[in-house]
Known about the structure:
InterPro entries: P-loop_NTPase (IPR027417)
Oligomer: single chain
Protein name: ATPase
Amino acid sequence: MSGTIRNFYVGGNTAHGFTSFMDSSLQGLDRIFILQGAPGTGKSELIRTIGDHMASTGYDIWLLHCASDNAGLDGMIVPQLKVGIIVGTAPYEIESLRLPETDLKYINLDEACDTNQLIIQKLEIENLNEQIAKAYQDAYDGYAEALRIHDEWETVYIANMDFQAADELTKEYIDTLYGERKLEKRSRVDHRFLGAATPKGAVDCVPNLTEGLKRFLIKGRPGSGKSTMLKKLAAVAIERGFDVEIYHCGFDPNSLDMIIVRDLEFAIFDSTAPHEYFPEFATDEIVDMYTRCIKPGTDEEHAEAFTHIKERYTVQMKQSTQYLAEVKSLQDELKKIYTQSIDFSRVDRLKDGIQQEISQIAVIG
């Protein structure tokens, strides 16, 4: 029987630049294999191959997806074995990871490259890296401007919000989700992204992450209190000792998009664009914050202003997506250079070595 695969992101292209929650997903691991090497040296393929093998042998795994490459992976974790494999190159700052009790093993895939070939291409590599850095910065600048526009949107709704009603609604859901239940243990808190801004636009893993759970779909408008409610619900989970998965907004990581408490088998999430969902299962429930918390007629009263704001916001977001697509195209060119210089038989041997070590951990465990 195959293991369960959970998909999410630990790094995101956001309005605050590249944001990483990698260290959160690595907590509690005994061993981490850190893959170093240039684009095209086979890091993502190695991770996926070993992940597929572990899942096929019955282990549940987490796949950490790459925000800058829709087909790429940034890591794989086998929670039961307390082992993981992650990409250890920029933009992740592996040196800053605080994992004093974890055995870190570095695997340098650049060792499989023909350095003579790369020396010949040195200027081209430097040129591509400079273009990639500029395209990333252009994307981040665009997202930052989009966030400023989004703040204009929120300001109108905040001015028409009934904060007492929002507090009452949150209290209702604290009672609904938790009741009087609590656990006499310390909560584990995992910070993640449920999706990301990618070269192909916004993507998310909501169906995979919420599978088999009772789902509460929050509907509302920008500034109608969705993230604030989620933060309060997460705080209750932590206070009462429940493990909680906290999913940050891939656009503004200071906001939350979803929390999951698997001990209580529920997920509650912001179900508005770009991750808009509607009830699919009998147990799905709508949480309508617009109806409960916003002054009636607000949409109609400010319709013209909202249309203008939405148009500006959409243009800015599309432009940043185009810059990420440019990054992907440039990275593909960079990968070709390294791929032509690499001895993949050596990469396969490194992969087999990692797989053998993980298999030994499984036997001992």
